[in-house]
Amino acid sequence: MIQSARTYLLVSFLLAALAGIVAAWSTTTYFASRDQEPSLHQMIHRDLRLTSRQRAQVAEIEARYSAQRQRRENEMRAANARLAASIETDRQLSAEVQAAIEDFHLAMGELQMETIRYVFEIRETLTPEQQTRFDATVTAYLTEQEL
User: Fold this and answer.
1) Alpha-carbon Rg of the chain, whole angstroms?
2) What percent of the chain has pLDDT over 90?
3) Which of 45, 64, 53 is CA-nearest to residue 134?
4) Rounded CA gap, 59 and 53, in Å?
């Protein structure tokens, strides 16, 4: 009886942890998506009426951020693969399972920090009027409000 209760708790915990990781990944993917209408990227290029100098600065910032984002997303995928392998091998909340979860959270946190740095770096290239529109858009995205 005790063994089946432990097994039930372990399976429940692992499923909850996996659901949390999937939810976190989905949220990160959703906010980083280029298909979102209208995206921050689209707003910057379509609505802010950037000068040619601003377009060049923004392109450089976006290229750097895109590479960073890809690296962090690869790290999250690798951590998820390690998590799946550890769960399959260990069938318990082992040190390897916990390490894979921590690796995922670390990569996700770094992606969020790099995204915020990207937002502030883009903001620095804008005029005060453009910054007002940009700030309102960023706030709306973060609070899931309509513009």
Assistant:
1) 20
2) 59
3) 45
4) 10
Q: Which residue has the tokens 């976006």?
A: 62
pLDDT digit string (tens) for 50-100?
999 999 999 999 999 999 999 999 999 999 999 999 999 988 888 999 999
Name residue 27's amino acid.
T
Give the predicted TM-score (pTM) of the model: 0.67
Contact 99, 81 (CB under 8 A): no
Q: What is the DSSP string of 59-112?
A: HHHHHHHHHHHHHHHHHHHHHHHHHHHHHHHH-S--HHHHHHHHHHHHHHHHHH
Average pLDDT for 126-147:
88
Nearest Cα neighbor of 78 from 111, 103, 99, 95 is 103
Q: Give the span between the Cα atoms of 96 and 100, in whole angstroms.
A: 6
Name residue 15's amino acid. L
- What Cα–Cα distance (Å) separates residue 72 from each residue in 7, 48, 61, 117, 129? 34, 28, 17, 14, 33
